[in-house]
Amino acid sequence: MRWIGSDEAGKGDYFGGLAVAAVFLDDEKLPELEKLPIKESKKVTDAQAIYLSEEIKNLCVHEICYLAPTEYNKLYSRTPNLNHILAWLHSRVVMKLLNSVGSCDRIVIDQFADPDFIKTYFPKEVPLVIHPHGEEELAVMLASLLARATFLEQLNKLSESEGVVLPKGASTEVELVGKEFVLTKGEHALGRVAKLHFKTTEKLLTTAPHRLWAPWRVEYITGPRKGGCIFCEALKNMGKSYVLYCSEWAFVVMNIFPYNNGHLMVAPTRHIGELRELTTEELVEVGRLVQASVEILRKVMHPHGFNIGINVGKVAGAGVVDHIHVHIVPRWLGDTNFMPVIGDTKVVSAALDKIYGMLKPEFDKLKL
């Protein structure tokens, strides 16, 4: 008898990614496997799961696929249905394993959705069995242990890299750690460690207190106002003014008194205060830089949306009335609403130098 079993781990955990494993089993391996204290993965400790997974890897041909949170969130944004993602991952590891071993008599998958739906992801000739209690099958039990161990190992690595212990599950403890993570790392960093489509995300972002720390505003609040145009001054001293990109017609600069993390401004290099004064070249270049800036912010900071706009005239809220500029404000679920953004009531959570260091390499790659 030759058969394959597959199972997944991490789909119910807010932190960490998603692991799917498949294991090939035949009669020759059974005597060796019987020597191991193999149980359903739910009945063993984390340490036992990791130990058993190493033994299983040494004995059985297997395939494992792990989606880190960043990869998972990108995939979910394109395919917002967990069952579709699971079916794709199961078919991926099973078919890859099947190609390695040549053939098998039976392929068993622990049921996670309607069997007919799961089967659409596999060739019709595959001897597929969707089992509602899959871990009763030895091959699925082995795959479950591999998937769980992979998830745990990757969660531990993620905890180490972020400097915080990320708990399993979706409990109150998870919410407490999540709130602290948002407070210390910033909302944009959540996608590195968590599955953003969980309801936990909205709960964290709507209940987590905003961090009242903005050291760069002290000089603005307490210091004397400088004369001249801040945009023209920035162009004269680009090395110290957070200019991210400059062309002949326009440039991108960080707002040093930002309304939110990653707040950028795009302005013409020429000192003009009205839209009607923009030449065709300037108008096109400003538009291209706004478009490029949005894509770079999307890539680096993973915001959920943007506010993009121009304030023309002091009555409309323009802080600098004689040098027209476009605001690009990244937005995350639960940060605030548009009026507080414009009214400058939000204090952000990440230092300018750090964000500049994240964005500048991407702007350096621009070829417009």
UniProtKB/TrEMBL annotation:
Primary subcellular site in the record, as a coarse category: cytoplasm
InterPro entries registered for this protein in UniProt: AP-4-A_phosphorylase, FHIT, HIT-like, HIT-like_sf, RNase_HII/HIII_dom, RNase_HIII, RNaseH-like_sf, RNaseH_sf
UniProt entry keywords in alphabetical sequence: Cytoplasm, Endonuclease, Hydrolase, Metal-binding, Nuclease, Nucleotide-binding
Keyword Plastid: no
Sample GO molecular function, one term: RNA binding
Extent of motif Histidine triad motif: 323-327
Record family assignment: Belongs to the RNase HII family. RnhC subfamily.
Role: Endonuclease that specifically degrades the RNA of RNA-DNA hybrids.
Protein name per its UniProtKB record: Ribonuclease
Organism: candidate division WOR-3 bacterium 4484_18
Source taxonomy: Bacteria, Bacteria division WOR-3
Gene this protein is translated from: rnhC
